[in-house]
C-alpha cells in the first residue's frame, strides 16, 4: 500500500465525509424501491468510503477503523443473506426465492414481497461493499 | 499471423452486423422483448410487490435468481482476486 497522503485538508475533509458517504450509501440501498439505486449502487458507495479512508488516512489508522479481513466476511455474509432468503421458502414448501411464502407475521403478500426485496437488496449491498474492499486491500498488498 | 487475425476479426464483424440488421428498431413497441413478459411486469409489479420502482421489482423479485447469480459472481471475483494474488513475494508488501 502507498504511504499516507500528507495533506491536512484531505485529512479533515475525509474525516468529515466518510460518515456522510456511509449514510448516503445506506440511503441509496434502502431507496432502491422508490428511486434509481438499490443494492449494487449503494454497496459501491459504501466501498468507496472505506477506500477513501485507506488512501487519505494511511494504512495504520484506516485499518484500525476497518480491518482488512472484514471485507471478505461482509461479502460472504451478504451472499448468505440473499441465499437464506431464497432457501426459507424452499423449506416451507414453496418454490425457491418465492418471497410470498416467507413467514412474516401479519402482513399480506405484496408487503411480504416488499420487505423481502429490501432484505435481499441489503444483502446485495453488503456483499458488494465487502467484495470491493477485499479486492482493494489485496491489490494494495495487505495480508488478508 | 496478423493477417489471419485481421481476417477472422473482419469476418466476425461482418457476421455480427449481418445478424444485427434483423433486430427490431430501438423503442419499437411491437418488439418481442417488450410484448411478452415485460408488459406484464410493468402492469402488475406495483400491485404484486408494493414497489414503485419497476426495475428493482423485476431485478429482485421476478428475476431474483439472476440477481443471486450476479451477487455470487461478485463474491467469486473477490475470491479469485485473493487467490491469484496470494503467492506474491513478501518484499512487495508495505512494511
What does this structure look like?
The complex is a heterodimer of chains A (144) and B (95). Chain A has 144 residues and is an all-alpha fold. Chain A is built from four helices and no strands. Chain A has helices at residues 8-30, 39-65, 70-91, 109-139. Chain A is elongated. Chain A starts with 7 loop residues before the first helix and ends in a 5-residue tail after the last helix. The model of chain A has no long low-confidence stretch (mean pLDDT 91). In chain B, helix 4 crosses helix 5 (64-84). Helices cover 69% and strands 0% of the residues of chain B. Chain B has five helices and no strands. The termini of chain B are far apart. With 95 residues, chain B is mainly alpha-helical. Chains A and B meet through helix 2, helix 3 and helix 4 of A and helix 3, helix 4 and helix 5 of B.
Biggest beta sheet attributes of chain B: none
Number of strands of chain A: 0
Provide the helix percentage of chain A. Answer: over 70%
Compressed to H and E, one letter per element, the order of chain A equals HHHH
As residue ranges, the low-confidence spans of chain A are: none
The class by helix and strand makeup of chain A works out as: mainly alpha
Strand residues, percent of chain A: under 5%
Query: Largest interface, per-chain counts?
Result: A-B, 47 and 32 residues
Residue share in helix of chain B = 55-70%
Assembly level:
heterodimer
Q: What is the 3D shape of chain A?
A: elongated
| Distinct helical segment count of chain A | 4
How many strands in all of chain B? 0
Radius of gyration of chain B: 23 Å
List segments of chain B where confidence is low: pLDDT < 50 over at least 5 consecutive residues.
none
The end-to-end distance of chain A, rounded to whole angstroms, is 13 Å
Class per helix and strand makeup of chain B: mainly alpha
Radius of gyration of chain A: 18 Å
Element pattern of chain B in H and E? HHHHH
Q: Summarize the biggest pleated sheet of chain A.
A: none
